[in-house]
Design goal:
One of its GO terms (cellular component) is extracellular space. By secondary structure, the chain is an alpha+beta fold. The chain has helices at residues 37-45, 67-73, 75-84, 100-109, 135-141, 175-181, 198-212, 239-251, 277-284, 294-299, 301-310, 317-326, 378-395, 420-424; strands spanning 13-19, 24-31, 56-62, 88-89, 145-149, 172-173, 192-193, 196-197, 218-224, 258-264, 288-291, 369-372, 406-417, 425-428, 436-438, 447-457, 461-470, 475-477, 483-485. The protein is 26% helix and 20% strand.
Length: 514
C-alpha cells in the first residue's frame, strides 16, 4: 500500500520500501504503535480498582547486569536515576535460580518454573506458556494497556528452552517484529538496525507506547538481551541513549503516574569476573531500582519508608510479584510475615529473614558464609564424585553423542559455615525483629552443605555445584537446580541442541574430539 508522511499506522510493525525513478533505494522493517480500537474500548469499559494504588508499572530489564556492573558500565543512566529521579536501589536483591526464566517467572507468575506446567522443548506433554498465571491478564482485566518486548529471537527468555507463546500475552508484543527483522541482521553492521543502533528500536517502542497511551494505566514489561548477555562491556554504548529516553519520559510528564523499574535478571554468568569471589556474588545480586512519582511519596510516606528500609533487607523476585499485586488490591502496609516466601516491598521485610524463609536455595544465596575444605577430606571427595556422576547422568541417554566427563582441575571445595550466633538464635522479642533471643544450646546440625567449583575433561567445562550431605542417612543429595555452568559452552553441545537443549551445559560432543 502507499502511505504518506504523518499517516496513521495500520500495524505495529511494517516493512518500508522506497524507490527513486530508477531503483529501489531503501528497505527496512520498522516498529511503532498502532492504536487498536478494541483496546480503547476495553480501557473505557474497565477501570483500575478503587482499592488499588493508582499507578502504572513500567519494567525495563537488562540481561546479566549485577548491581556493581551497572554502577561501572551505566554511570550516566544510574546518576540520572538516583540523583534526578530519586530512584531507590535494592542492595539485597537475590536471584532464585539460573538464567532469565528463573528471574521472570517468579515476578510475572509468582511461581518457580518447576511449579508451572511443563513447557520445555522435547519434553512429554509440553505446551506453550500461554496458560501460565501471567500478571498481564490481571492488569488487562482492570483496564491497563499491557506489553511484552524481548529483543532476541535465538535466546528469548520463553523461547530458547521453552515453547514460548502461541498467542500474544499482552496488548503489544514485540516478538513478531524481531522474527521479521532477524534475517536482515546478517546484512547489517553488528548491533545495528539499518542506520540506527538496534537498541534504539527497542527504546523507541517503549517511548511510543507512552506517547500513544499517555493518560491510560499501563503494565509494561520489556527485557533487553542483545548488548549485555555475552559481554557487559557492550551495554556501555546504550548508556547515553537510555538516559535520554528516561529524561524525555520524565520531562514529557509520562512518568507522573508510573512506577519505573530498571533492573536486571542476574549478574554475568560466564565472563572471567564470574570466576572470582566478587563475580560469584555479583551473579546472585542483579541491579534493581524503583522510582515513584513525587506525589506518590507525599501521599504514601509510610510505604516509601518501608521500601527504603527494605533496601538493605533480603529481597527476591517473589517480592516484586507481591508488590505488583498490591497495585490492583492494596491491603495495607505494616510488617511482612517472614513465613511468606514473597513479601510486598510496601511492607517492612523482617531483618531476621533468611534465604530459607524466602525460598532461596543455598546454591543461590549470597548471604551464606563458606569455609574451605581440603581435597583430602573424604566427604568432600564423595561430594565431588556425586557431582560428577550427576553431570554424566544428564548425558547418559545421549552417550553416543556426548563424551563421558571426568574431573580436571579443582578450583574450590567449601562447606557452609554457620556462626555461633546463627546456631543459638531462637527468635526476636520485638515486632521490628531487632532484639534477638539466644539459646544456651546450639541448634543440632542435620546436614552439611558443600559447594564445589571444578573443571571437567574433555572440553574444560567449569561448574559450580552445591549439594547436601544428610548426616542421618549419610547420603549426598544434589538438585539439578543447584548446578551452574560458569564458563561458556559455545559449540560444545551442538550435536544435541536439536534433541534436548536442557543438557547443553553438560554435553561435550564426541565429534569435537575427532
Amino acid at each position: 500500500m502507499n502511505i504518506s508522511d504523518g499517516a496513521p499506522l495500520v500495524s505495529d510493525f511494517f516493512n518500508i520500501s522506497c524507490w527513486d525513478s530508477r531503483n529501489k533505494s531503501y528497505e527496512n522493517i520498522h516498529a511503532g504503535i498502532h492504536v487498536n480500537n478494541t483496546i480503547r474500548e476495553r480501557l473505557r469499559a474497565n477501570k483500575p480498582p478503587a482499592n488499588g494504588l493508582g499507578l502504572s508499572i513500567a519494567l525495563l530489564g537488562f540481561d546479566s547486569m549485577s548491581r556493581m556492573s551497572w554502577l561501572r558500565r551505566m554511570p550516566r543512566t544510574r546518576e540520572f536515576l538516583v540523583k534526578e529521579l530519586k530512584a531507590i536501589e535494592l542492595e539485597g536483591y537475590n536471584i532464585l535460580g539460573d538464567g532469565t526464566p528463573a528471574a521472570l517467572f517468579p515476578i510475572l507468575t509468582g511461581k518457580l518454573e518447576q511449579e508451572l506446567p511443563e513447557a520445555r522443548r522435547k519434553f512429554k506433554g509440553a505446551k506453550p506458556v500461554d496458560d501460565f498465571p501471567w500478571l498481564w491478564r490481571n492488569f488487562s482485566k482492570y483496564g491497563y494497556v499491557t506489553s511484552w518486548a524481548d529483543s532476541q529471537i535465538a535466546i528469548a527468555p520463553f523461547n530458547y528452552r521453552l515453547l514460548g507463546f502461541e498467542h500474544s500475552p499482552a496488548d503489544y508484543f514485540m516478538r513478531p517484529f524481531y522474527l521479521a527483522a532477524d534475517p536482515l541482521y546478517k546484512t547489517f553492521s553488528p548491533h545495528c538496525h539499518g542506520s540506527e543502533p538496534r537498541h534504539m528500536v527497542w527504546f523507541n517502542w517503549i517511548r511510543d507506547i507512552f506517547y500513544m497511551y499517555k493518560d491510560d494505566p499501563k503494565f509494561l514489561v520489556h527485557f533487553y538481551t542483545a548488548l549485555s548477555h555475552d559481554d557487559n562491556n557492550l551495554i556501555t554504548m546504550a548508556d547515553d541513549d537510555l538516559r535520554t529516553l528516561l529524561y524525555n519520559l520524565e520531562n514529557g510528564g509520562f512518568l507522573n503516574n508510573t512506577l519505573l523499574i530498571v533492573m536486571a535478571d542476574h549478574g554475568a554468568r560466564f565472563d572471567t569476573v564470574r570466576r572470582t569471589l566478587s563475580g560469584k556474588i555479583e551473579e546472585r545480586m542483579p541491579y534493581v531500582s524503583l522510582r515513584f512519582p513525587r506525589w506518590f511519596e507525599i501521599k504514601y510516606p509510610h510505604l516509601i519508608k518501608n521500601i527504603r528500609t527494605n533496601v538493605h533487607r533480603l529481597t527476591t523476585p517473589f517480592d516484586l510479584h507481591e508488590t505488583f499485586k498490591d497495585f490492583l488490591r492494596f491491603d495495607g502496609a505494616g510488617k511482612g510475615d517472614v513465613k511468606n516466601r514473597g513479601i510486598s516491598l510496601f511492607k517492612e521485610i523482617p531483618k531476621s529473614r533468611t534465604c530459607a524463609h524466602a525460598d532461596v536455595a543455598p546454591h543461590w544465596c549470597a548471604c551464606l558464609k563458606w569455609q574451605s575444605v581440603p581435597e583430602t577430606d573424604p566427604n568432600a571427595r564423595r561430594a565431588l564424585q556425586t557431582a560428577l556422576e550427576a553431570l554424566n547422568n544428564f548425558t547418559e541417554p545421549y552417550r553416543s553423542d556426548c563424551a563421558l566427563l571426568s574431573i580436571g582441575n579443582i578450583t574450590t571445595l567449601s562447606k557452609m559455615f554457620a556462626s555461633d550466633e546463627v546456631l543459638k538464635f531462637k527468635r526476636t522479642k520485638d515486632d521490628r525483629g531487632l532484639r534477638p533471643v539466644m539459646s544456651d544450646r546450639f541448634t543440632k546440625v542435620d546436614k552439611i552443605i558443600y559447594q564445589l567449583t571444578f573443571f571437567t575433561q574433555p572440553g574444560d567445562g567449569e561448574f559450580e555445584i552445591t549439594l547436601e550431605h544428610v548426616l542421618a542417612s549419610n547420603v549426598m543429595q544434589l538438585n539439578s537446580k543447584s548446578i551452574s555452568r560458569i564458563n561458556k559452552y559455545g559449540n560444545d553441545p551442538a550435536c544435541v541442541l536439536n534433541k534436548n537443549r536442557e543438557i547443553r551445559q553438560y554435553c561435550y560432543c564426541k565429534s569435537n574430539l575427532l
